[in-house]
Amino acid sequence: MLKTKTLYIILSFLVLIACKNEAVDSKNNHAAYEKAWNNLVSANNDISFDSDIYLSESETILDKNLSDLRDSFIESMHQNQQSVFNKSFYELRPAIDTSKLYKIFSLMPKGGLLHSHSGGITDAKWIIAHAKEYDECYVYTHEDNASYTYGQLGIFQKNQVPKGFVSLGGKIKSNPGFEDELYKLLILERLTISGHMDIWGEFEKRFDRINHLLSYRPFFKEYYKKAFLDMLDDNIQHLEIRFVFGDLYDLEGNKYYNETIIQDLRDALLEVQKVDPMFTLKLIYSSFKFFDNESVGKEIEKAFQLKQLHPDLITGFDLVAEEDALNSLSYYRDNWLQLDSLEKVYGFELPLFLHAGESNSKNNKNLFDIPLLNNYRIGHGLNLVLFPELIKEIKEKDNLVEINPLSNQILGYVNDLRNHPGKILLRHGVQCSISSDDPGVFGYEGLGYDFWSVFMAWELDLSALKKLVFNSIQYSTLAEGEKQIALKELNKRWDTFIDQSNKLFE
Question: Among 235, 288, 308, 479, whose CB has the most other CB atoms within 10 angstroms?
Fold first, then answer.
């Protein structure tokens, strides 16, 4: 035993001497030093999430052009004594819109938008313009109370209009400035990243203001058709919505339930597929983190029932709402443990796509539930960087993190996007995609601004952009056959984009 221990000590000492000599040699020998330095760089690059991407000659040319455009944009902003990074999206947007770089990002196929929410994906200006065409549309103009919020829209029969509501069309006609005021009430416009507000309270009011209007069946159908068309305009070929189901109504007093909702969404999808036959849609059944265990258990059962009837459309389950203020994922442990028995009853699985880690706090431990569950993707994952061992688990399970950069900035989790944790996750080899969460509430459509922002702030190259785009289809909930068709189409669109973009520099 003593001999073995002595031999171990001698061998360890020799290894230390060898390492020391190699370090000394590296310092005294330029070639060895450079080799060691390059090996370290290569080792880190090999870990990166996009290490399997190899650019073609045409892609390499565009990569260089994009990098030059980024440098020239930053230089021009500096010459005008303007900062690119420590400003809010709304302050930067005029400069973004007029940049050649954004024009290219508008052309870029985005693949899929994997993280979006019902009621948060359509242009607020369109909502107002379309709503005021309804004679039955009214707006609440009194102070907030327990029942209504200032600026809330609703559809009512003339003799059933609640106190405090006035005709939306009449209000705008008598006061044209009210249309702009209402628009600002429907979007969460954080003009400066240092401004203080009850962000989540204000955020939720934006949904409150349109919920009743969106439940009006004729408007519901038009809303989602417009949302799908907005996706096409931004070169998005696949959409997944965290969908909260609720009853629809009409002015004849009829109520419409989940089957009608799904049929209306299918009808809207068919209309949009006349424009782009390759556009696809999936729904992740969603409920709320402020519900108790019994209520969430009932919601999970409803999700199973709906997926049984519509397996091609309903693909999973999620819980939404502010993480730090509400129930943790562990609170619902009994619900998660019941999934196995429900899957046996129904004969299929209901994967989870849980919001987790939308927080800056180490005390938020929602991400620790993820490796223990049948969870395919992670919504946000901001505080994952605080848990090194958990990063290893997430990588091992090949969970995708759905990063929502502008949402995270607007909701106050990250002021300067250069400091966004997603940048670190990518370098550590965590697979990610880019999403926009609730673009309609944030005053824009699609994904172009989010891609532009991370390209600038995270110093991404075309390899990273390509990987983010293709991840959004590879990790989508499309069935395997659908996925292969979508990837083939995305490859074609990507090649066309490379050719079109390079021509802009000729």
Answer: 235
